[in-house]
Amino acid sequence: MQNEDRTGYQQLETAPTLATIERLQYDRHYRDRRGLFFVEGVRNFVEAVDHCFPISALLYSEKLLINPLARKMVRQLKRNGVPFARVSPEQFRTVSKTERASGVGAVLHHRIQKLESVKLEEQSCWTALGHVRSHGNFGTLVRTSAAVGAAGFILLGDGIDPFDPLVVRATMGALFKQTLVRTTDDQFQRVQQRNPQVIGASPDGTMEYDQVRYTRPTVLILGTERSGLTEAQRSVCRHIVRIPMADGMDSLNLAVAGSLLMYKAFLG
Hints:
Elements lengths: L1 E3 L5 E3 L1 H13 L1 H7 L1 E5 L1 H9 L4 E6 L7 H12 L4 E3 L2 H5 L10 E6 L3 E2 L10 E5 L5 H13 L4 E5 L8 H7 L7 E5 L1 H4 L8 E5 L5 E2 L9 E5 L8 H5 L3 E4 L11 H14 L1
């Protein structure tokens, strides 16, 4: 529920708002069903606002929030009619997952697209993958992708939740600079019809990763850390590349391997 405070702004009731935020942080099914997720921290908040993520609710503590830019954004959002809950430092800390609570957070709407709605031809580089064992690894990939100016990620199936709080925190705001697409393995098979260069990565690749000319658009496919690329994924690849390693080593951390490929694609 929400009420107009004496300024006419839309103030939310504190207890239900905090309960919603708490559940959004531990219950993926709830996040998916509501199409919402929670972010906290000045960097995440500023990046989300700057990249026009729709805000369902704003949470802040006057005493904790000392960053001038974030305070200015909070005032502007309130004037624009964004519902908000103003809470005490103690109340904010009940939902904060960081070591030092920043005093600002927001409930945001998911922004994830379908493959058919994205113009791959107009973008430089995408990364497709269906499973990542570590939230930190996916966060690192997102940060690298943003750093090289890549378009974003094609998520194959439902195995990856880009809005998990651990993922969002690991991206350090880079998540909001990336386009996220979710599709099925079957639908991804038709990506060849749109004529991007599809390059898979595998230890048994026929070429070293730096021997390929990365034209644009390029879609990089990363397999799972345990089993690698599936046969279906291999079937859409124009090239399957390997990253050379010293004798006795047969695999790299997924975030390291993906980052190497992204930078090579960036350099051409």
